[in-house]
Each structure stands twice: as structure tokens, then as C-alpha cells.
Amino acid sequence: MVRQEFTETPPNPMGKSGRERHIVEERAYWLAWVVAWPAGGRRLLNLLEAVGSARQAWEAEKSELAASGLDSSLADELLSRRSRVDPAAEQERVRQAGIRVITWVDADYPESLRHIYDPPAVLFGLGAFSFQESGPAVAIVGSRRATPYGKATAGRLAAALGSCGLVVVSGMARGIDTAAHRGALESGAPTVAVLGSGLDVVYPRENAGLMEKIAASGGLVLTEFPLGSKPEAWHFPVRNRIISGLCRGVVVVEAGERSGALITAELALEQGRDVMAVPGNVNNPFSRGPNRLIKQGARLVEDAKDVLEELGLTALFPETESGEAEAVAQLSGEEKRVLEILQGQSLSDQALIRLTGLAAPQTAAVLAYLEIKGFVRRAPGGLYYSLLKLKNGR
Fold first, then answer.
1. Residue ranges of the domains in the chain?
2. What is the pTM of this model?
3. Would you identify the CATH topology of the domain 131-316?
4. Beta-carbon contacts of residue 137 (< 8 Å; ≥ 6 apart)
5. What is the H or E stretch that residue 92 is in?
6. How far apart are CA 289 and CA 97, in angstroms?
């Protein structure tokens, strides 16, 4: 198949040149195929290449489908599904929904996805983001049932990486994924969310606003599943290959021993991507995933610089003349207060809660950020101490 530069589907293709009409019509058949065969992936691409085009494959008889390599039962199943799909109607649905359609032969299909084992034939997107015009991408993934520490870590890491020009990719699930997207947005950087459902089925529902903000802020909400696709359980492991496939590396922040985040890490290794992990409390079951990855050789990540070093992108890390003083100046009032209290002493988190008057979750988030930035450390006994000596209390 020859890659072509497809234009967005016009409201009315009549009056266009013969080549443009062909492109519009061919796109309709790509759409129809992914509706009829949503899990086709590489097998669908092989079929279209063997037959010649999406339209030719759509109009092919069973004997032609079988000659392309499909077994008889699958050919019968596809013929049955094909009879229930109207290519023109599918094209009109996505046009009215304002959805971008990126097919395998389009010039703006993400180049990194072309080289994974089972690339999606078609991608549906909301947002103007282009991988061809962006910086390198890194995935931040983890548990849906994340702790305040995990969410704070993911958010701070995403914000720091976004500030360095990286694109943060995640799955828009609850917990770590949501925190990563929000952190990237707070830094003013674009972020990419890869869904396990159609773009008209927001999951989880409470992230509808986040989804709109990602698309409106120069980012992209992406899926291989056509409109109307529910968030079926099998969609998410399949979706994860796209998350890792879009990125130079994957960072795992809190994950159980059996989790989608670890599936993403395994897929990343298979795809030749770098795998990194943020260490966690050994008493937290959601630390077992990243801690195990680190034991197996994954890069231990404490801050954005660790990620940039692993990816060979240290030139993107901002160096400042004022160093630590400027870093401290950028801290929030609560973070500075905790640093001041820790000057010359080691304290438990409970003691810090009492001395600062902060709620427990907020204290945990503050300590998590200060750890990531290298301002404080947690001793084996559970006491926190400062690594930074403030001058004049500031």
C-alpha cells in the first residue's frame, strides 16, 4: 500500500477532482472495515495489501478473501459483518462528530506505531495535535486505585517532563493516568490520551471534562475503536500496545503485581522501548509492580532528569544559574513550610501533619513532591529529613 496524504472528509465531495473523490471514497471503506472488524489490526492490513485497496477488499468475494490468506470461517464471518455496515453512513457519522480519521496510508499516521507488531489500521482522534510536529513522547501509567503519593508523583513528573518539551501519553483511566494528564496540562504542554472505547463513550464518565480539555489544549484523545464502542474488558490490554508504541519510554508509577500498567511495560520491552519505574513503600501492594520492575533492571525514577537521562535527552533539562534557590522559590507555601520545619531534624509524617496543620492527604502530596525534587528523603524508620539547608529560613 502506498502512503498518501489524505485531506479531511469534506461535507460534500461532489465537484472534487477524480483523485480527491477516490481518496474520500477509499477512506469510507477503511472506516467500514474497522467497524466490521475492530480487532483486525495487522491481519486487516495484510488483507488490504493482498487485495489492493480497502474498497477492493470490501467488494471481494469469499474466494478472493480466502486467496488473501483468511481461513474459510473468518471469511464467512467477515462477509456477514460486512453486509451490515454502510461505508458512506460510517463516513458521515465521523464527519458529523468532528472526529479526525487517520488511516495507515495517511502521512500523519504516527511513524512509531508503524513498526510495532500489531499496529492499528485506523485511528480516531479529537484534537489538532500531530506526532510529526511534536517532541518525543513518554508514557506515565499506573494503578487506578492510586495513593495520594502516587497521584502527586505522577502529576509532578508529568508537569516537569511537559516543561522540558516532552509529550506525556497515558490512558485517561482513574488514578495515575488522570494525574499524569492533569500534570501535563498544568505545565502548558500537550498530552495524549489513548482510550479503550469509542470517542463518543467517555470512560470513566467523570473524565468528560478532562477529555475536552486535552483536545482543546493542543493535545489529542485517540482510539482505534469506532464510534459506539463500549469499554469492554479486552479493549484495555489491546489499547496498551498503542500507549507504549507511541512513546520512547514508559514510566510506571504504582501498580499491583497483575495490572494493566505492567502489561504496558511488557509491551514496551517487546517494542524496544525504555522501561522506568518510580519506587514505592514496600508495605503498599501497589508498589510491588514498579519495585519488581526495578529489580528486573528498569531505571529507577525519582525525577524528570532520571527519565531524560534514560531516554538520552538530558539536553532538554533546564539548567539555571540560581540553582537550588530558584527551585525553592518555585515551591508552594505548604512545601516551603514543610522544608522549614525539617531543618535540622527528622520527623514522621504524623508529626508534620500536627506541626503544619495540613490534612493527611495534602501532607502526603507535599512530601511526595519534595522527595521527587530531591529536597527531602524518607529514612528506613519512616522519618523524613531535609537534604537542603535553607538560608535565613528561605
1. 18-109, 131-316, 324-386
2. 0.77
3. Rossmann fold (3.40.50)
4. 112, 131, 166, 167, 168, 169, 192, 246, 247, 248
5. helix 87-97
6. 39
CA distances from 248 to 39, 52, 134, 140 (A): 25, 33, 13, 11
d(CA 31, CA 43): 15
Kindly list the distances between the CA atom of residue 15 and the CA atoms of 20, 55, 95, in Å, as whole numbers in the listed order: 10, 21, 18
Per-residue pLDDT of the chain (394 residues; tens, 9 = 90+): 434 333 333 333 334 444 455 566 899 999 999 999 988 889 999 999 999 999 999 999 999 998 888 999 999 999 999 999 999 999 999 999 999 999 999 989 999 999 899 999 999 999 999 988 888 999 999 999 999 999 999 999 999 999 899 999 999 999 999 999 999 999 999 999 999 999 999 999 999 999 999 999 999 999 999 999 999 999 999 999 999 999 999 999 999 988 899 999 999 999 999 999 999 988 889 899 999 999 999 999 999 999 999 998 887 776 543 456 667 777 888 888 888 888 767 788 888 998 989 999 888 888 888 887 778 877 656 778 777 666 444 4
Which amino acid appears at position 269 of this protein? L
Closest CA to 343 of 385, 310, 307: 385
**300 has which bridge partners?**
277
Sheet strands (E) in 127-197:
137-142, 167-170, 191-194
Domain covering 324-386: architecture: Orthogonal Bundle (1.10)
Report whether the peptide linkage leading into residue 204 is cis, meaning its omega lies within 30 degrees of zero. yes
